[in-house]
Amino acid sequence: MRASLVVGLAVSSLVLLGCPVGHQSPPARAQEAATELNLNTRFGRMEMATERVAPAARDAFLARRRAWGGNVRVADYELAGFQMKGENDAEMLVKVAWYRIDQGDLRVTMLKQKWHDFKGDWRLVDETRADGDVGLIGEPAPPGDPAKAGAKRAQFPTIRLGQPEPEPPTPDATPAPEGEAPSPAPTTP
């Protein structure tokens, strides 16, 4: 009696604790691989991320991310879409929020990642910019407007202590033609 009780408890505990349930579906494994790769690249762990890249695509993958951690910082990423393309191929859309250290403006780029199942091991085989800001994965930045090159946009400009504040234009004076003094604004009685 006691032996059958012990065997019954052992079998039921294995069932309740979740015996090996079997393998995950191919789409679930692809999503897990993409999450692992993008999480590792987000935190600068490129050597771990390259484990999820196909050997033929590793050099290009590392070249596209050469500036990451230096001039380019990744603030966040999000898996925005997933689609199986047959039995062994998948496409992921990854939205990456990033900024350049010298500019500080938050940018968003959508990447399209192509994945392939190499006998149960999902690997990244290609990656392109699908939408958003240029410059995240090594593309040359478009030429800026030369008129805006020196001006920096700011809703609330930085005020530094110890430096004189720039004088705002006075709304009372009307602009004078060149070489003349500005005329005072008309007063109403």
How is the secondary structure organized here?
Blueprint (H helix, E strand, L loop, with lengths): L1 H16 L8 H17 L3 H4 L8 H7 L7 E13 L4 E12 L6 E12 L2 E12 L57
Antiparallel strand pairs: 1-2, 2-3, 3-4
Overview of this protein structure:
This protein has 189 residues and is an alpha+beta fold. The protein has a domain at 23-132: Nuclear Transport Factor 2, Chain: A. The chain contains 4 helices and 4 strands, in the order ααααββββ. It has helices spanning 2-17, 26-42, 46-49, 58-64, and strands at 72-84, 89-100, 107-118, 121-132. It has a 4-stranded antiparallel β-sheet with strand order 1-2-3-4. The longest helix is centred in the N-terminal third of the chain and has 17 residues, at 26-42.
Offer a quick outline of the entry.
With 189 residues, the chain is of the alpha+beta class. Helix content is 23%, strand content 26%.
